[in-house]
User: Fold this.
Amino acid sequence: MLVLILGLTLFLGVHSVRIYADDWRNAQFVRLGEPRWKGLYSLVSLVGFVAIIWGYGEARLTPTVLWATPKALMHLAGLLTLATFILLVAAYVPGNPIKAAVKHPMVLGVKIWALAHLLANNTVADLVLFGSFLIWAVLDYRSSRQRDARLAGTAPQAASSGTRGALMTVVVGTALWGLFFVWGHQFLIGVRPY
Assistant:
């Protein structure tokens, strides 16, 4: 469990710099330059991500079960992850109305993903992993929306491509969710969703 906590601290810590130390982050970005800043950021993120995978894998070998998970919550988690995939795609499809509406679809997607996995899983390691991501996503989403409000009117707004952009986002997100649901989760995580 210690490796999992260390990984979460590194990964979520570096991803929280903008939440708690935005001025410091901006100063380091200028001081180091974009390539070095992004390189260090990516290195710390990668080390943290590897530690999360390793630590969670180790913790799953001797699980401490906290509650019995009703089957209905597992089905609800599956539906919530569909929304997650659509939001993740929305983060990358330029000018789509979903992104225009929620402003930070990737962070909102992480929030929904973490909540879905808290509903479907029931061990201490699950609570630590998914609970940490949920708390981080709530704080990051709030911070991002506050930053948007402060910067309102200073940055150009991206035009929405309307129905076509929304349709493309939903279709691609649903297709990716289906692939991950049927094949990817088992292959990458080692667990069938149902």
About this structure: The radius of gyration is 18 Å. The mean pLDDT is 89.
